[in-house]
Amino acid sequence: MSDLHLKLQELAMRCQAILDAMRSPSTTALDASAKTQAEYTRQGKQLLEHAKRVEGGLYSAVQSTSSVSTFRKRLAALGYFLNEQNTQLKRQLSLPSIPAPEILHLRLVQHLRRLQTLQRLRQEGMTAQRAKRRSKRQSLAGLPANWRTALCKRAAGGRYLFALIVLTLTGCRPSELANGIQIWRGKDEGTGKHVIHFQICGAKVKAAQGQPLRTISYNADDPHPLVGVVNKLLSSQEEPHVFAQVRSAINLTVEIRRLAHSLWPKHKHTVTAYSFRHQFAADLKANVDDDATSRGLGHLSAATRRVYGTAGQASKGQRLRPLRIEAERPVKPRSRGPCRKRHGEPSP
């Protein structure tokens, strides 16, 4: 074996050693969807191109943000992209006859430098001053206690009225409503009373994240006015069963913003579909146990619910009180180990 081939083997081993040392979802993204992988590839290429034009190269290109979430996404994208490049380079190196070994040597040297930069970025973390994170639950501040019902009334006659009612009663994600939610009424075996069930197929579900399926149930005679609306709708059906769905989660949020602005033009914060989710979480935190709140939000980890509405933000007078909240997976308890400051929060 020639000296050049030995150098190629040594470089490949050093590159692999760095990847092995980092070992994390951000460098492999094994459970990422095809859409996420495509986005990582696009952003990885974009970072490497930007690195050619800025002083400080790749390190500066990744660090040039005051957003924690953007920094973390860049690390994830770069890690995934470099891992894919590493696989391609190893494939070339395994060929019986390596074409243009001198060029492959240059590529491996460059690849090693990029991996070393990624390792440094992961070790040092974000160095720019971080922009203050604005929680989406702030949108609830200053809204009237019955804001969800008021918004539904303003939507009367429009195509999103029922979607807003379902958002109120389930706190589902807009994407989950775009996928569709099953709603039906049946009798409770224990009490014989009618119960309304909302069954949601979870979004953001992975092997160690999210609830694939959850069901939120209300007494059919619950005094909340929107539960009454759903009960009347089910009574009008030949079979007490309906399917709630919107064509576009984005269009739904645009309509919510428009309706909210028409009702409260001086409100300081933007009201979106996630405002319903935060209000739902606030109501649950004031009325049910913590794990039920996590199940209702579709979370697998108990730690995630802390970024959603607080019990102090629960509705006055029109608070939601589900009869039962069931989910496919048991909620994982929060770690009791030493508290460490996080660089960012999960996306809602």
Query: How does the overall form come out from the CA principal axes?
Result: elongated
**Count of individual domains:** 2
Rounded mean pLDDT is 89
Strand content: 5-15%
Helical content band? 40-55%
Under the CATH scheme, the architecture of the largest domain is Orthogonal Bundle
The counted number of beta strands is 5
Q: Helix count, per DSSP?
A: 13
Structural class: alpha+beta
Low-confidence stretches: 337-348
First-to-last CA distance: 55 Å
User: Can you identify the CATH class of the largest domain?
Assistant: Mainly Alpha
In spatial order, strands of the major sheet run 4-1-2-3-5
Find the CATH topology of the largest domain: hpI Integrase, Chain A
* Helix-strand pattern: HHHHHHHHHEEEHEHHHE
Radius of gyration of CA atoms, rounded to a whole number = 25 Å
Quick overview of this protein structure:
This protein is 49% helix and 9% strand.
